[in-house]
Design brief:
There is one protein chain. It is built from ten helices and twelve strands. By secondary structure, it is an alpha+beta fold. It has three domains: 84 residues, Rossmann fold, CATH 3.40.50.20; 123 residues, D-amino Acid Aminotransferase, Chain A, domain 1 (2-Layer Sandwich); 47 residues, 2-Layer Sandwich (Dna Ligase, domain 1). α1 packs across α10. The longest helix is centred in the N-terminal third of the chain and has 18 residues. The protein is globular. Bound molecules: adenosine-5'-diphosphate and magnesium ion. Adenosine-5'-diphosphate (ADP) binds next to β4, β6, β11 and β12. Magnesium ion binds next to β12.
Length: 297
Amino acid sequence: MSEKKPKIALLYGGNSKEREISIKSGKAVENAFKKLKYEYEVFDPSVGFEFIERIKNYNPDLAFICLHGKGGEDGQIQSILEFLNIKYTGSSPKTSAICMDKNLTKKILSAENIPVPKTFVKEHTKFPAVVKPSEEGSSIGVFIVNNKLELENALEKLKDYENILIEEFIEGRELTVSILNGKILPTIEIKVEEGFYDFNNKYVSSKTNYICPAEIDKNTQRKINEIAEKCWNILECKGAVRVDMILDKNNNPYVLEINTIPGMTQHSLLPKAAKVAGLSFEELVNEIIEGALREQR
Ligand SMILES: Nc1ncnc2c1ncn2[C@@H]1O[C@H](COP(=O)(O)OP(=O)(O)O)[C@@H](O)[C@H]1O
Ligand SMILES: [Mg+2]
């Protein structure tokens, strides 16, 4: 712990499609701040220029970023904070921008021999396939398609997105690996009752099961942890991240994406993994703060 408690700007809200999730994450972190007796103030960047003036005047020791999606998780807010010379939690603008783009992330990871689902060009799609916006989150706009017609329908629904990804559907077990300040936390397996891990199964359904630590044989677990750690290193991640994977029938893990600002609600995955590793929600928040304060930026 630092000797003197830092003064923190807590950022939540924003204007991405994940605003509501961001507010939930932010409020959970705010509760932890209260328990931990941190001096803090809440800032919502969706107010625009006024946000910059307010945070500059507040002059915090650290900005704790609880924003998801565009504007908050893609390097934009991180760049503004760099410009204002304010320390912040999580990854750099560069890492954030890359990880926000699933297509680009996969290109970089596959060049380093990390297994990822194959990307299809539309004409050569093999079914079943997954269609999703390259730069979105919370399973918003993710479709599993079984034929050309379904593919066309999905593309039509996503027509407002600039970047759309069509990729190989990997059948298997849904896993997520959380990493906290470079330390790999226990893997979570997500078991949905029906369909895939879509928005409803993520945030609404009470029937989604989370198994942590996931029941995985030692060798496969070693492989999974190695892949997660490589992702962390290749993309120069910082703070807390989550690597989403699918483990296929032959126990081969595939990386779907890397989340540089994982959800922080009481039901989110990172806090679950942290708990199994022996960290309460407040201790997790503290670790994120301490890790960020140690960073030289
Ligand atoms: N290639 C794929 N194979 C199988 N399932 C997938 C694939 N891509 C996405 N999914 C499913 O969709 C969910 C959301 O996709 P993901 O790429 O993690 O995007 P995000 O969580 O940012 O919305 C995954 O958790 C998984 O259930
Ligand atoms: Mg995901």
